[in-house]
Design a protein that fits this description.
- The structure is a single chain.
- The chain is α/β, with parallel strands linked by helices.
- A six-stranded mixed β-sheet has the order 10-9-8-11-13-12, with helices on both faces.
Length: 290
């Protein structure tokens, strides 16, 4: 068995897989909402963030060892990539957990997300969207081949941290977030094309589909309608989020706003959800070398 730990800006996840000759099976999945992005001040990770990361990583190592994992792999995304003291922080965490931590570039994260998602969703041409806690990855693919990918340093948790004052965002806060995100998007994709189909991965996507009450496929109009309904600052909206995705009460609306802006920017029509993503892509490419 193999353990893979994904150190994200919002959550830290452990997946344990049983490996077969030509396939793999997910046996155990654990998640902890650590919120590492909240421990970043002036682009530096604070000591409190190191303590939080070390605590959960050692806990996940204990679980993996108790289940007799042959090897444990750990990688980090925007949580440790987009900080100015990345090298020293990664070194300290590695020494205190005895884990080698592979810090993925934005392009690597995007490519691995595409590799993982396409194991589950059969779409020939479209746009992969991965809204994480600290960044948003976009991969345009045609005939199941990557054409271009990019990473935007804005995610659901960092957007909440930077633009929202209370627990739920106000209308003007979501507008400010949308303007900032579109500015970043237009820098990276200067001439957008119409992309009918979106394949979405990550926590924001999973929570959005739970709120829409769809398992695999929805329309982009479904997303915009849901966002409009939930962002009306009413008690009913708060109760709906608390009922279905309580652990994302503060990040779901910022994350959905980012998703909505992507859908509008590319005039998209349909959106699919894949529950396989970066972790499965990492397993295939970096561990199994497939």
């Amino acid at each position: 068995m193999i353990g893979i730990i994904d150190i994200g800006s919002n959550t830290v996840r452990l997946n344990i897989y049983k490996i077969y000759d030509d396939s793999y099976q997910l046996l155990v999945t654990e998640k902890e909402m650590v919120g590492l992005a909240n421990h970043i001040v002036n682009h530096e990770m604070m000591a409190s963030g190191v303590e939080a990361a070390v605590a959960i990583l050692n806990h996940f190592v204990l679980i993996s060892n108790n289940l007799n994992c042959q090897k444990i792999y750990a990688f980090a995304t925007a949580s440790l990539r987009n900080i100015s003291n990345s090298l020293s922080i990664v070194d300290e965490i590695s020494q205190r957990t005895h884990l080698f931590i592979d810090v993925l570039t934005g392009d690597q994260e995007a490519q691995l997300g595409f590799l993982g998602a396409t194991q589950e969703v059969d779409v020939e041409t479209g746009l992969l969207v991965d809204i994480g806690g600290g960044s948003t990855e976009l991969v345009y693919f045609k005939d199941k081949q990557v054409v271009i990918s990019t990473s935007i340093p804005m995610g659901s948790l960092t957007s909440y941290r930077d633009y929202v004052e209370d627990i739920l965002p106000k209308t003007n806060e979501l507008k400010a977030l949308a303007i900032a995100f579109n500015r970043e998007l237009s820098v990276r994709v200067k001439t957008p094309i119409d992309i009918n189909t979106i394949v979405s991965i990550g926590g924001t996507a999973r929570a959005t589909f739970e709120l829409i009450d769809e398992m695999k496929q929805a329309t982009c109009d479904d997303v915009s309608t849901l966002l409009k309904r939930l962002s009306n600052e009413s008690k009913a909206s708060t109760n709906e989020i608390l009922k279905k995705v309580p652990d994302r009460i503060h990040t779901i609306l910022p994350g959905m706003q980012l998703l909505s802006e992507v859908l509008k920017y590319f005039n998209s029509i349909d959106i699919y959800i894949s529950h396989s993503g970066v972790r499965e892509g990492y397993l295939l490419k970096e561990v199994l070398r497939r």
